[in-house]
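#onboarding

Welcome to the new folks! Below is a worked example of what a typical request in this channel looks like: someone posts a single protein sequence, and someone else replies with the predicted structure as tokens. Don't worry about understanding the tokens yet, we'll cover that in week two.

Example request:
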Amino acid sequence: MATNILWIEGNRNAAPSFVSDLRRKGYLVETAPTGIAALERIPELEPDLVVVNAASLRTSGRRTCQALRDLREDLPILLICEAMNGRVNANQILVLPFTTRKLLNRIRALVPEKEGKALKAGPITLFPDCHSIQLKRGDIRQLTPLLTALLKAFMQHRGEVVERDWLFREVWQTNYTSDTRTLDVHISWLRQKIEADPRKPRLLKTIRGVGFRLDV
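Example response:
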């Protein structure tokens, strides 16, 4: 199961961003442009770690870290800054410049890697244990357990035509295959999660009279 990171970062170009590096390493990274925006998203995302890139916010990060600590006392906080400036309520502090390797070491110290493996197919990374996906464009989407099972079936047979009857037996665990409406609705919901334009699917295609194919 992937570590879920909420990364607070402004638009200051002089401050380096490590978000892309972390995503390539398999971390689920959601970004927020301000501390206030991050506070609003924590109940929804339930992150394992919050990174405050104060260097990009033109602040010391002190108030943001304190607000995060007030909201969730047990939440690990890593602060990135340009210089040490008094006491800050963060678990770890990194002073620029530093390498991606050093950042990864600090993250692993704060949040031990979870068990469970991700499945990857083209632009889609599926984390079955936490029912979520990360797309190449950086989006993180939550899935229901049934949509997770449905996408997993397609990913394990990507490039192959998967028949409707087989999906009912594999995902729904039933031999009753007449309820085509149920399958079509779930296919529609899945496309809303993985397609840039669900009305013109480019990944999950319908093969008329047979079933579906995941093209990645």
